[in-house]
Specification:
The protein has eleven helices and six strands. The chain is of the alpha/beta class. The longest helix is centred in the C-terminal third of the chain and has 22 residues, at 217-238.
Length: 339
């Protein structure tokens, strides 16, 4: 019989105060016979996919959440938000994004109360955090906290934010600990039952690249690629090089067809966009390396500066319809201006 569910745990992705490796956390929860667990790392969802997959493999219900810092009139305090449903999950993503983009103060992503109110639908707010596996792990945990805070363990002035009790207790221990408040323990199970977020894994989600009115993304991609190749051919001619335009056009159409078939035109346009922006704003960019240098489309769009036909480089090493995987350009930006 389920008596208790941990709704606030921190993994190694909470750099301030978490020791758990994600798979260890889920494995111990499964060993305790708990049907669900929430991972609520501080101001981030970096472990989300790893956590979600680990839970599914162990037959444990994943509950998605995060510990957040919220501004108040006299400073700021920490609240835990967990997502009940898809709406809550999207609101949690929005709050974390707002915290880092608009509320960041040093190492903290602070939330304004009005943001929380605006994005509260589908979220549950709640107390008790588990940061490490066993009570004996407390000293190692405190060492990690001290490293983050740049203080020593024996510093008498350091702030003690944690206790040896913040380990992942089994259900029996939590029931005994809250024997005077049995409803508090029972409510964790009820909250877990209210939560159910499903992630879509294995599907690529790219930003929509803006195209001229009256054109589809595929049409624009083909035209943009051929226009870029025209610029490359003119540049070669100005340097006294005579290239077989028909062979280049044929190779370009072949690559464009493959890219369209695999559904990746937006990826190439997005990469070309930020690389050419860098070049136009005096941020040095490498000429291209790795298998991506074998793409004439990449050369035409300015992603790379190596002519794959001249150097007999194979496009199939970069993209192959028989082995569908996301393309991956290796890009080198100068450290000056990279940000």
């Amino acid at each position: 019989m389920t008596q208790f569910v941990h709704l606030r745990t921190h993994s190694e992705y909470s750099l301030v105060d978490g020791l758990f490796r994600v798979k260890e956390l889920v494995g111990q929860v499964a060993q305790y016979g708990m049907p669900a667990v929430a991972l609520t790392d501080e101001s981030n969802l970096f472990a989300l996919v790893k956590f979600y997959r680990a839970c599914l493999s162990q037959g444990v219900q994943p509950i998605i959440g995060a510990d957040c810092w919220v501004k108040g009139s006299d400073g700021f305090g920490r609240l835990t938000f967990i997502a009940m449903n898809q709406e809550g999950y999207k609101n949690l993503l929005e709050l974390l994004s707002l915290g880092w983009l608009k509320g960041q103060d040093g190492d903290y992503a602070l939330l304004e109360w009005e943001w929380v109110v605006e994005h509260a639908a589908g979220l549950i707010c709640l107390t008790n955090v588990a940061c490490f596996r066993e009570a004996d792990d407390f000293e190692a945990h405190e060492t990690r906290v001290c490293i983050h805070d740049s203080v020593t363990l024996d510093d008498q002035r350091r702030v003690h934010r944690h206790t040896p009790e913040q380990w992942l207790k089994p259900q029996e221990a939590m029931v005994e600990l809250f024997s005077d408040l049995p409803d508090a323990v029972a409510n964790t199970v009820q909250i877990a039952k209210r939560c159910g977020v499903e992630l879509t894994l294995g599907t690529y989600f790219l930003p929509e690249y803006p195209v001229p009115e009256g054109m589809t993304l595929d049409e624009f991609f083909r035209q943009f690629s051929h226009d870029g190749l025209s610029d490359r051919l003119k540049a070669a001619e100005s340097h006294g090089q005579t290239l077989d335009e028909a062979a280049y056009r044929e190779r370009l159409d072949f690559e464009v067809d493959v890219i369209l078939q695999m559904g990746f035109p937006g990826y190439f346009l997005i990469v070309a966009d930020f690389i050419n922006w860098a070049k136009n704003n005096e941020v040095p960019v490498g000429p291209g390396r790795g298998s991506g240098a074998g793409s004439l489309v990449a050369f035409s769009l300015g992603i790379t500066d190596l002519d794959p036909i001249r150097y007999q480089l194979l496009f199939e090493r970069f993209l192959n319809p028989d082995r569908v995987s996301m393309p991956d350009f290796d890009i080198d930006f100068c450290q000056e201006g990279r940000d």
